[in-house]
């Protein structure tokens, strides 16, 4: 299997585990020292350090009832990114954002995740 196919499959598997709430599945894709950085100033912002903290962040985000629509899996020479459209509703507050989740890989696993958002103020209002 070509390297880009491996990266593409890793992105597809990460998204599948996220939408299914398969936290052990997500954990299996991460290096032990994995990190996940999100912009903004809210309950999910900042950097989660360590694979267990990354899984806890994924659980917390999913607990808000998000729909994670996968638009594209993008690959570079060594890494991959997910292009997503996330939507959710919590009472009168609505989340409708586009994002790229950039994953840097090491030894076939995700070593770091950095998320880029289209609507940081909207994210701040939703994740209180």
TrEMBL record:
Gene3D superfamilies: 3.10.450.50. Residues 14-112 form the SnoaL-like domain. InterPro entries: NTF2-like_dom_sf, SnoaL-like. Pfam families: SnoaL_2 (PF12680). This is Nuclear transport factor 2 family protein. It comes from Streptomyces misionensis.
């Amino acid at each position: 299997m070509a390297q880009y196919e491996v990266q593409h499959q890793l992105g597809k598997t990460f998204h599948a585990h996220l939408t299914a709430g398969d936290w052990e599945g997500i954990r299996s894709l991460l290096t032990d020292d994995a990190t996940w950085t999100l912009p903004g100033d809210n309950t999910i912002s900042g950097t989660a350090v360590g694979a267990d903290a990354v899984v806890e962040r994924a659980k917390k985000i999913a607990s808000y009832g998000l729909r994670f629509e996968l638009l594209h899996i993008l690959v570079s020479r060594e890494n991959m990114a997910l292009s997503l459209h996330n939507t959710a509703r919590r009472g009168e507050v609505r989340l409708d954002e586009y994002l790229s989740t950039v994953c840097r890989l090491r030894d076939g696993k995700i070593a770091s995740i950095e998320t880029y958002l289209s609507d940081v103020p909207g994210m701040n209002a939703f994740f209180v």
